[in-house]
Amino acid sequence: MASLLGLLALQVQSVSAQSSNDEDIKTVPLRTHSLYQPYLDSELQSRWFDWGGDTIIRADQYIRLTSDRQAQSGWLWSRLPLTATNWEIEFEFKIHGAGNLYGDGMAMWITKQRAQTGPVFGSVDKFEGLGIFFDTYKNNRPGIIFPYVMAMLGDGETSYNHENDGKDNELAGCSARGLRGAVIPTKGKLTYFQENYLQLELQYKNEDQWVTCFNVHNVTLPQIAYLGFTAHCGELSDNHDIITISSKNLYSINPNRPDSNSQTTRPNKITEKPATESGGWGWFFLKFVVFIVVLIGGYVGYTAYRAQKRSSRF
C-alpha cells in the first residue's frame, strides 16, 4: 500500500511540473490557415485556400505545386490574411523527383501580396514581407551546400538576386543536405513572436528530431499578410508537394512573455498541445490520481473497521 501511494505521489509531482511548464505558452488552432487531406469540400473547393498555375491536388495524398516536368509553376495561398500577433506554422512537404539534375525549388511566404505568379520560386519579385526559399539548385554560392534554406525580408522595392541565390539580401539560412528525397516525412516549423524573434526548425534527418535552421531576433513582419507556398521549375524539374499545414495562435501567460516590451525574452517551451479548460489533461490526470488515492484510503479504512467490529463480537 505504501509503495502504491509513493508511486502515485511521484506521478502527481510529474504531472504538476509538466502542467506548469506547458502553461507558459497556450496555443489556439488557426483553422483558417490549416489544411489537411482531403483538402477539398463536396464542391471540390477549399474554404480557406486558393491554388493555381500548374498545381494539382491528389485528395488522399498531396497538393503538388509542380510536377517533375520542365517549365512548371504553381501556387497555394490562404484566402484570409494572417492577423495573429504570435503564431506557429508547421507544414509537411516533400521535394523529390526521378532525375539526377533537379531544380529549382519552392518557397513559403508571409507577404502582403498573394496569388501572383512571378520569377521568385513561382511568385512575384519585389515582395513585401517574408520569403523562405527551399533552394535545390546552386547558381553561385561558393562554399555553400545545397539544398539551402534561406529567409529574406522584402521591403516591396528590393529584388531577389538569382545570380547568387539571394545572398545579397539574406536574413538567415542553413544548408539542409538530405532534405530533398528524404526517407522520412520532411517538415518545417516557423514560429513568430511579434518584434521579438523568428525561428525556423526543420525535420528531415530523423522523425521527431527538429533541427534549428535559424533564430533571428528583432524581426517585424507585416501585421496583415497572407500565407502562401509556391514552386518553380525551369530547364530542370522536381515534384514539390505540400502534405499538411497546421497553424496555431500562440500567447503567453507568463508575466515576462515574449510579446511584451522586452526584446530578448523567449518562452521556455513552445508546446503543441491545444489549449483546454481547467489546465488541460494534466489537471484531469491529477484529479483522477487524487480520486484513486481517496478511494483506496476509504477502502482500507472500511476494511479495518469491519475487521475490528468482527473481533469485538468475540
From TrEMBL:
UniProt keyword annotations, A-Z: Lectin, Membrane, Signal, Transmembrane, Transmembrane helix
Segments of skewed composition (Polar residues): 254-268
Pfam families: Lectin_leg-like (PF03388)
InterPro entries for this protein: ConA-like_dom_sf, Intracellular_Lectin-GPT, Lectin_leg
Coiled coil residues, start to end: none
Stretches for region Disordered: 254-273
Domain L-type lectin-like, first and last residues per copy: 27-250
A GO biological-process term: endoplasmic reticulum to Golgi vesicle-mediated transport
Bilayer topology term: Single-pass type I membrane protein
Protein's UniProt keywords contain Signal: yes
Cited CDD domains: lectin_leg-like (cd07308)
Regions that span the bilayer: 281-305
Localization annotation: Membrane
Coarse class of the protein's main subcellular location: membrane
GO molecular function annotations of the record: D-mannose binding
GO CC annotation, single: endoplasmic reticulum membrane
Annotated signal sequence range: 1-17
Descriptive protein name: Putative lectin family integral membrane protein
Species classification: Eukaryota, Fungi, Dikarya, Ascomycota, Pezizomycotina
